[in-house]
Structures are given as structure tokens and as C-alpha cells.
């Protein structure tokens, strides 16, 4: 792990120690308010629970900070910045009786695991990394004049495998050639192993109309029960507990580590791309895999600048290196369990 990366992420582990004496957020007697079937908690209660000294308001901007971390909310928005990492919350921050509230789901499923990664029961020790290069064979994924997504995914996956192997991780590739696999086959391969995490690698694309607009990196992790797939409305099946939901907290911690780490590495390498945030989705690989799992969309092949970046060896190498460092970081942060 390089120095810059360590420095940038140090608060993640520091907080683990600072907050290890606090009780479990899920067990705490929050005073909840309901709006449109969603339960909310006043941000001042959140401030108190996590010992933030300040909660300040300026226009629609709501800031909660201590010496290690800054949480930046915007009234009416689902976008939240936690130490400059963007998260797309499941519900907007809303004013109820004159004070700002966050939904209980976002509090327990995003804020808490991020602030206290070592209290995540589902983040069990692991020695195996399952790398899933998306698409392949008859399914090339996205494509442009420079190449196919299936091929880029595989290239990054192979580099990542080399890094992890050197660090003595056991590595499983769902595919290591240009071969077609169904989503269920990928899930079945992953679920044959224990003590593992799952990382699916993809690149994005959008139709002609959004070509020059849509760009950047986004990291998906499974929507908790009662939360829709990003950009879709809620449906009955969103309330069914999936295999992946047993690791909700570990999922968000892994997504954060990889999303943040990737952005830091790209920035340092002079290849910074926009931040599209950590988002919730119901992709089959995320719902079916029984390990902490994320799906990284490493940029837009449809965007003229990003297409060239994604095609470059330097960009692919940086992605692979950063995912590896992030995995190591996630492991370090989550195994420092508080004594109870
Ligand atoms: Zn894809």
C-alpha cells in the first residue's frame, strides 16, 4: 500500500478506534419520525450518537464534522459527501418540524458502517478474492471503436489477480478467457468458496445523446431491503431479503474502500475522472453472492476522453493497483474489532 493511499484513508481506521466504545447503532433507541412510509431520524441525534462537536447549517448545506471526518449533506438531496467520497443515499435529507432528518435505512446501512467499519459483524476475515470480469464470449458488453468492455474487464482483472497473488490472497476468476458465462454461473462459482469477497469489474456506456455528458466512476453495492435499484421506483421484490443482504454493512464498507481508493489512485496518477458516487443496485451478481460484493464501473467507454483513458495501459494498471490496495485497506479496517 503506498503512502498517499494510507494517509488518505487513515481516518477510516482512526474512527474505528475512537468510536469503538459506543453502542450498536441498530440497538440504540432512536427517536424516529415517519414520512410517506419511511422512518427518519433527526440529524442532531446522529451528531450526539457519533460525538460530532458541530452541526452547522448554511443555506441548504448541512455540515457535521470533527477533526477526522466531515459529513456534508444538502437539504432535499440524496447526494452526501463523507470525507469527499460521494454516496447516493436511498432517501433525500428532508426537513421535518424545522430540523433536518436522515432516513433510518441510510443511517444504519451507510453512515454507521462507514464510521465504524470494525463493528461490522458481516465483515468476517477473508483470504480469497473472487474477481468477476463482466461479460465475455458472445456478450462483449459495451464497445467503441477502440475495443470491447469484455476485453478491458479481463485485462484489469488479470492485473488485479497478479497483485493479489503476490500478497498471498487466493484468487478465483469467474472467467480467465473470452468466454460467455451467465450471471447465475458467476454467482454459483462465487458461492462455492468461503472466507471470500467478490469484485465485479465493468465499464459503462450510454447512448449517443448522453455521449459527451456521462462520464466518471461509480461503485455499486446491493440495495438493502426496502431500497430500489438506482434510478428505478420501488417494487414488491425490493422487500425480499436476498443472499447479499446478509452482508449489507460489509458491502458498503467494501464499496467505500474501493470507490475511494480508485479515485485517489487515479487522481495521483493524473487521470482523475468525475465521481458518480457509491450507489445501490440490484444486479444479479450482487443479490446472489453470499460474500461482501461490489460492482465497479470504471468509466464510460461512450465518452470520447474516457474511451481513450480506458484503452490505455496506464489507466488499466492504475485501476488494478487501486482495487488491490483498497482490498488490503478494507481488510485492515474491518478486522480491528472493538473489544466488547
Ligand atoms: Zn458491463
Keywords summarizing the entry:
340 residues; alpha/beta; Copper Amine Oxidase, Chain A, domain 1; Aminopeptidase; 2 domains; 6-stranded mixed sheet; 5-stranded antiparallel sheet; 9 helices; globular; binds zinc ion
Tell me the helix content.
25-40%
Biggest sheet details: 6 strands, mixed
Q: Number of domains in the coordinates?
A: 2
Structural class: alpha/beta
Our count of helices gives: 9
CATH architecture of the largest domain: 3-Layer(aba) Sandwich
- How much of the sequence lies in strands comes to 15-25%
* Poorly predicted tracts of residues: 1-8, 13-22
Terminus-to-terminus distance: 30 Å
Which hetero compounds are present in the coordinates?
Answer: zinc ion
Radius of gyration: 19 Å
CATH first level of the largest domain: which class? Alpha Beta
Task: Identify the CATH homologous superfamily of the largest domain.
Answer: Zn-dependent exopeptidases
Number of strands: 15
- Spatial strand arrangement across the major sheet: 11-10-12-15-13-14
CATH topology of the largest domain, which one? Aminopeptidase
In round numbers, the mean pLDDT is 88
| Strand and helix order | HEEHEEEEEEEHEHEHEEHEHEHH
Shape label: globular
Secondary structure elements and their pairing?
Blueprint: H1 3-18, E1 32-35, E2 38-42, H2 43-49, E3 54-58, E4 61-65, E5 70-74, E6 79-82, E7 85-88, E8 94-96, E9 99-103, H3 104-115, E10 128-133, H4 149-166, E11 170-173, H5 183-191, E12 196-204, E13 217-222, H6 248-268, E14 275-281, H7 284-288, E15 293-300, H8 304-311, H9 313-335
Parallel strand pairs: 10-11, 10-12, 12-15, 13-14
Antiparallel strand pairs: 1-2, 2-9, 3-4, 4-5, 5-6, 6-7, 8-9, 13-15
Helix pairs in contact: 1-6, 1-9, 3-6, 4-9, 6-9
Bound molecules: zinc ion.
Zinc ion (ZN) binds at residues 134-135, 141, 149, 202.
